[in-house]
Amino acid sequence: xxxxxxxxxxxxxxxxxxxxxxxxxxxxxxxxxxxxxxxxxxxxxxxxxxxxxxxxxxxxxxxxxxxxxxxxxxxxxxxxxxxxxxxxxxxxxxxxxxxxxxxxxxxxxxxxxxxxxxxxxxxxxxxxxxxxxxxxxxxxxxxxxxxxxxxxxxxxxxxxxxxxxxxxxxxxxxxxxxxxxxxxxxxxxxxxxxxxxxxxxxxxxxxxxxxxxxxxxxxxxxxxxxxxxxxxxxxxxxxxxxxxxxxxxxxxxxxxxxxxxxxxxxxxxxxxxxxxxxxxxxxxxxxxxxxxxxxxxxxxxxxxxxxxxxxxxxxxxxxxxxxxxxxxxxxxxxxxxxxxxxxxxxxxxxxxxxxxxxxxxxxxxxxxxxxxxxxxxxx
Length: 379
Description:
This protein is an alpha/beta fold. Among the domains are: 2-48, no CATH class; 62-259, 3-Layer(aba) Sandwich (Rossmann fold). 37% of the residues lie in helices and 16% in strands. It has helices at residues 2-18, 27-60, 68-71, 99-102, 105-115, 128-141, 155-169, 241-268, 324-331, 335-341, and strands at residues 90-94, 119-123, 148-153, 174-180, 193-200, 220-225, 295-300, 312-317, 355-360, 368-369, 373-374. The protein has a 7-stranded parallel sheet with strand order 2-1-3-4-5-6-7, sandwiched between helices. A two-stranded antiparallel sheet has the order 8-9. A hairpin with a 3-residue loop joins strand 10 and strand 11. 37% of the residues are buried.
């Protein structure tokens, strides 16, 4: 920022010296123009470098220099199905281009994820190729190492998408990705990703990238625009305690859902499951809600509202006496977000039979039942 201000000041002085006769722009306007030009140039340079770095480390295997930190993940405790013995999966957090300075909030976030019962590790962009290879090896050795979860800050958000693309080529599923204000040139989300949650600020000239799926994407993409929460900016997003708590909650929810799925598969393959059912008795099965898939959803969190991370949506048909508030109460979803995603006003009357997309929170630690199982019901 100091460099940007210095360049802007120098540019303003140069323009003032060589401006054409009769040019009447006030000095503050000249400085504003110069700051905008330098900021755009800086943003373009940063995003280009981040993309080139992601390509280079994936293609050339620069991650081979990472040493013992990766050895611990390759088939070690960090790669085990239970992580630290509580929940399956592993979260790989990626710093941005200058992450050693600006993305260090991810270190604290990883520690919080570990304390919540899920394995987590933090990496720089030069480790990209080695991390990707490690994930592939561990998954092929033991699929119960899933779910693979990725999180990247700034240009690290671009990198985790590139990692997911390579994992797709290796037939490795990705349960969850968090983008922390990735750049506008980030790649499209590949089809092996189940949930992608993008925390960004559309007005940010450094990040501000909105996520979109590839043509064959069938999962869920949620773009959460935090532009109205001015207490958060690009270089503090990774350090926000509020964001940390929401991410940990989502990670635990995804890991617990995977634990439930693994337990169900083990039960289905057990000898007891192959015994014939008693005559006249039918197995009790709960029908899950009909979640909308594929899903690409975007909302701006109002400044007066707490930040909430929705990960799914259901389709609701309005009844003759329904209002936005009645549907909000019935689905336990704030009225403001229902209005936003359906592009209607808060006081708009609903037509009987009108279909509405209603955001839901499926993956959450709050949905975990005793014995570390998860109940996949809309919150």
